[in-house]
Amino acid sequence: MAATSANNMAGQTDLAKRLCWTMFILCCYRIGVHVPIPGVDAAALASFFESMSGTLFNMFDMFSGGGLSNVSVFALGVMPYISASIIMQLMQVVSSDIKRMAKEEGQAGRRKITQYTRYLTVLITLVQGLGIAMGLENMTSPTGTPVVMASGWNFRLVTMMTFTTGSVLVMWLGEQITERGIGNGISLIIFCGIVVGIPRGIIQSVALIQAGDLNVFMVIVLLVFMGAVTVCIVFMERAQRRIPISYAKRQIGRKMFGGQNSHLPLRLNTAGVIPPIFASSLLLFPATIGQFSANDYVKRAAEIFAPQGLAYNILYVALIFFFCYFYTAIIFDPQDMSENLKKAGGFIPGIRPGEKTRQYIDTVLSRLTLSGAVYISLVSLLPMFLISNFNIPFYFGGTSLLILVGVAMDFMNQVESYMISNQYQGLMHKARKVGKA
């Protein structure tokens, strides 16, 4: 008993260390968000962003945790890394070499792909850094004060290097959380950026109420509505389609094995929060660059793809559907599932093993993915509806709420799994002690 208690205490101490490490990394990230790049007039920048309220900047600023509005060293956040991950995953479909590297070379192949993703992140950050630097040079406050104090290639190169270093550091911080902390580091960094923006959204709502632009009764109705949406998200994230599996009895020697019934759980939303994050990362930056640019044609294109515009929402939903199916296809392979079931002596009642099983799993998975894509699209479009009809701050609903709930549930599941694993190791240690005695 004493040995088991000691192992449990050791496991809890290790869990506490991991949680503290996670919080420490997130605090370091929040400090970096408030470190501005050199050569920018902070007062003119703040005045400019106040005039840009309700545009794409708010959405991009949410994902960067406020880094864009501060033009900090972490202004680009994890978006370049996410964009690089999208490109590498698409390359697995296009390139047979990268696909073989991911599936056949095991851990070594995955390390190579991770390294290529890092190199691609640096390249994307350099390009985006140059675009933002040139955009900052064209920005002025409503009073006409330039945001950049000294324009030129000196400022552009310093900005590119600063943004690149900051994005690489954010990527490294996320990897440190994943390896030495609890949860997915990149998702937790995005989660942290959204959470710190909630008080600002509440303050904006209070200001709207005081100004008479928002009715108190309507706020209560919207809070009840948002609570119902949150419950719906939790329900949908936990929803599963359980395909029954039966195992035939097999005789090995004089004993019979198998003959058990089980199930194959398929989540309704297999892709999780990946589709809206990927879709946002692809749409946000080009449109933001369009608003930075002084070219009239580029500005018109940016207006067409404004968040409240029809073209933006149609393309956003299309990308969500694409990434739902794409990411599900990467995670689940019906052919592998059917072959593994056949090798293990398992079968779906009423379905013949082999090709028929593959077709059945593929059909069920396609229907679930369609339902999940519709659900994610409806939740992601919620802010556009609230902004256009009720003048609600962006932080209430949509992709931000989906990410908050999804990442929080995943984080709690990993903490619970870690605690169960420690308890199991303690029981195994006790069993070995008893066996030796």
Describe the fold and architecture.
Helix 3 crosses helix 12 (274-292), helix 8 crosses helix 9 and helix 12 runs antiparallel to helix 13. With 437 residues, this protein is mainly alpha-helical. The longest helix has 39 residues, at 398-436. It folds into two domains: 1-183, SecY subunit domain (Preprotein translocase SecY subunit); 197-396, SecY subunit domain (Preprotein translocase SecY subunit). The two termini are 14 Å apart. The chain has helices at 2-33, 42-51, 56-63, 67-70, 79-94, 96-103, 106-137, 153-180, 185-195, 198-211, 216-238, 274-292, 296-304, 310-331, 334-343, 355-380, 382-390, 398-436, and strands at 240-247, 250-252, 255-257, 261-267, 346-347.
Name some characteristics of this structure:
437 residues; mainly alpha; Preprotein translocase SecY subunit; 2 domains; three-stranded antiparallel β-sheet; two-stranded antiparallel ribbon; 73% helix; 5% strand; disordered N terminus
CATH H level, superfamily name of the largest domain: SecY subunit domain
Lateral arrangement of strands in the main beta sheet: 4-1-5
CATH class of the largest domain: Mainly Alpha
Please mark out the parts with pLDDT under 50 across 5 or more consecutive residues, or reply none: 1-7
